[in-house]
Every structure is written in structure tokens, then in C-alpha cells.
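Fig. S4 source data, part A: sequence.
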Amino acid sequence: MAWELERLANHGGDLAALAQDVAFLPTASYCGRLRGELLNLTAELGGNRFGRGLLQPGGTRYDVTAQTRTTIHRRLTGLRRELQAAVALMWDSPSVLGWFEETGQLFGEVARDLGVLGVTARASGLRVDSRSQFPAGRYRFLHVPVLTSGFGDVFARAWVRWLEVPHSLTLVEKLLQSLPGGVIFAPLGPPEASSLAVGLVKGFRGEVCHVAITDKRGNCWLTRPPTPRSTTGRP
């Protein structure tokens, strides 16, 4: 839920920014405000608009109460309607479309060579989305379509963002209705020695890969062990 709410807030903010870039103030103002409303929904989950402190190894720090569930569902219903109205103003403006279309085109083969990910890749026609390609957790049981456009211009990047908005809204509503019971946190044991672990999750700008390697004692270094300092103070 937190991931999809983050996606919604970022998409709303980006659509506002794109409208602002071409001086189309109605959508810029509306979507800018709605981004704040979506961030407030994340705050309902864990007290922070950016989700800080919500997750921890082994689970979450906060549970979703019945009141929180009702609040999020009610607000999402209104936000869906308001987002549709705000973005429709932009699509109905010939001047906005004139600025967006065929501007900053990034074609699929170039995007692939550059290793582009996320919305930019999908706007160039690349079917890249770890939620469906490498599903984990609840995503294993949810249908997440990979929404693409083949034009690769500013319009395509805005359009793909907009196509993903209703799907994320639907995902959050489905998750609200299927939250499991039980504990929200399970303590983890010490890291296993001499092991390699790889995690791939969906980030807003593309896939985020974490790699952890432990030594024979189970110690884990992100890059390399810290270099001890000499008595002279030199590294």
C-alpha cells in the first residue's frame, strides 16, 4: 500500500510539474494540491508523509486499524474523481498537447542501449516493471499490467503516468480489502555467514537492486570494510 501511495503521489506531482513547465496553471495547481493529499494518506499509515519509519526488517512498525482503513478508502474515492477532472483539463488543451508531442523523443532502441528504467522506459515502449516481471510479496497475487507507449516523447511520459494512476488506486483499494491478520513484525535472526542476498524492488524511477554479502563471521559490508586509521591520523 505504501509503495502504491508513493507512486500515486509522485505521478500526481510529476503531472503538476509538466503542466507547470508549459505554464498550464489549472492542472499544475490542482495536481500539486492533490499530491499533498496523497502524501497525507501515507501519513495515515505511519505518521509520516514520506513513509519514514513505516518499514523495518521483519515487518512494519504500524498496523492499519479499522478507522485508518475507512479514512483511506473514503479519501481515495474523492481523489480519484478530482484527479480525473484535473488531468482532463490538460488533455483537452491543444496548446499543452502541442508542447508535449514530439518533444524530447527517446526511442525504444536508444532507451534500451542507455539502460533506461521506470516510466521513461515504458514511455519508449520497453516492457519494464519489476512488479510484474519479478513479483514478490503481495504482488504475486495481484494483476499489475505493464502500461507502455511507443512515442517516447513528453506526451508519452505524461500519458504513461496518467495510465498508471487508476491502476494504483485500484491496487490500494484491493489491498485495503485483503489485509491479513496476525503480527506485523517478526524478529530476524543474525545474518547467515558466507552468503549472498539480492533484493529487487520497484522504485519510482525504476528498479532498485540491493545486494548484501556476508563474510565468514556473518558481517555485511555495503562496499568494503572501513579502513583503520593510523596513529598519525592519516587514512
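Fig. S4 source data, part B ends here. Residues 66-91 form the longest helix (26 residues).
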